[in-house]
Amino acid sequence: ETGVTQSPTHLIKTRGQQVTLRCSSQSGHNTVSWYQQALGQGPQFIFQYYREEENGRGNFPPRFSGLQFPNYSSELNVNALELDDSALYLCASSAREGTDTQYFGPGTRLTVL
Amino acid sequence: RKEVEQDPGPFNVPEGATVAFNCTYSNSASQSFFWYRQDCRKEPKLLMSVYSSGNEDGRFTAQLNRASQYISLLIRDSKLSDSATYLCVANPSGAGSYQLTFGKGTKLSVIP
């Protein structure tokens, strides 16, 4: 086990709704990255948080936003949900200094109806 | 052209076989590379990091060819438990924030 936890495990929403996903990083890790994995695809980078600030963003619209808290846990918020947002959302934590190895949590499976 | 491309698979091999996966990356600035394995409906798990020309861990050997922008993963003496999807990953150092770029993955099924 990586020590990275995510909640909830599964979520069903309807188009137009908003969703918040949560992630607790591995002890000692101060960097959290979020990825979206659609069925049959590799994970795609959404954004990364380091010391409570966004530190890099992938090709995702502004309705995808996030936060990192002083304890390094993080939230991913998605507004105005679309059917294509249905995916596995993965959180990965890493120790910023000296390594770029990332460890993934179990993910949250979001279904948008 | 996709940033990281992998053999589409699937690969169906008998137990004990040797299997090789290939991967190419387009960003020549990429400095580090990884292989992750992902079981069905689970999270990716780190298999190997590849920082120089390559490395070996038991039955697994990863090789990196920077001139050809090519990474490979060799699995010897395949076990049933090796059945999974293998994801090739590059870290484009130019991003400056450790953004991992994943391939689509190659599915491996090891058959008894």
Question: Mind explaining what this structure looks like?
Answer:
The complex is a heterodimer of chains A (113) and B (112). Chain A is mainly beta and 113 residues long. Chain A has no helices and 11 strands. Chain A has strands at residues 5-7, 10-13, 19-24, 31-37, 44-50, 53-57, 64-68, 74-78, 87-94, 103-104, 108-112. Chain A is globular. The termini of chain A are far apart. In chain A, 38% of the residues are buried. The model of chain A has no long low-confidence stretch (mean pLDDT 92). Chain B has 112 residues and is mainly beta. The termini of chain B are far apart. Chain B contains no helices and 11 strands. In chain B, strand 9 (84-92) and strand 10 form a beta hairpin. The model of chain B has no long low-confidence stretch (mean pLDDT 90). Helices cover 0% and strands 56% of the residues of chain B. In chain B, strands 2, 4, 5, 9, 10 and 11 form a 6-stranded mixed β-sheet that branches. Chain B has a 5-stranded antiparallel β-sheet with strand order 1-3-8-7-6, with no helix packed on it. Classes of the chains: A mainly beta (113), B mainly beta (112). Chains A and B meet through strand 4, strand 5, strand 9 and strand 10 of A and strand 5 and strand 10 of B.
